[in-house]
Each structure stands twice: as C-alpha cells, then as structure tokens.
Inverse folding.
C-alpha cells in the first residue's frame, strides 16, 4: 500500500468546515497532484462541499464537475472524500462514502 500525506492546508480546511457547522454533518473533496510511480500521494487541498442535504445526487454531481474543472486548471485531481457527522460519537458513513474512479 502506498503512502498518503495530507497538507496542513487541507487538514485545517476540513477542521474549520466541521467547526463552522457543529450542528450538521459536513463533507468535501480532497485534491492531489498525480503521484509519481511508487510515490507518495500528497493531498494538497480540499474543497468543502455541503453541510446539509449530503446525499442530494444532483447537487453532488454538479459540485464534482465544478471541482474537477477547477482542479484541472491547477493540475489537481479529486483523490478522496471526507465526511464528518454532526455527533462526535456517531461514526457511521451514512452511505456517502465512495471511492473516486
């Protein structure tokens, strides 16, 4: 299994997104440049998406397309997804977890 690194920028943006909406579940996308063969996947940025209505497929599809186009301008690709529940003790994924293809 390869190594994964997360930048301070991406980590802080995820934490601030969850802290801004402590009453709601939040999610977003993690972005990275294409790794070299056998190299480390460096998650350099994240894009916060929603803090309500996490499973709306139309809104999610539009957001994915926009992030994909925006990321391509900076040579970034969607490399992951984050989800934080509203309750600190709730560790369920609520069906939103997926693997980008």
């Amino acid at each position: 299994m390869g190594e994964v690194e997360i930048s301070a920028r991406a980590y802080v943006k995820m934490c601030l997104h969850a802290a801004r909406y402590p009453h709601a579940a939040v999610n977003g996308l993690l972005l990275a440049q294409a790794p070299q063969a056998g190299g480390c996947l460096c998650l350099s940025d994240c894009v916060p998406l929603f803090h309500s209505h996490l499973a709306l497929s139309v809104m999610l599809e539009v957001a994915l397309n926009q992030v994909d186009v925006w990321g391509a301008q900076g040579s970034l690709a969607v490399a992951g997804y984050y989800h934080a529940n509203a309750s600190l003790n709730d560790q369920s994924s609520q069906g939103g977890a997926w693997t980008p293809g």
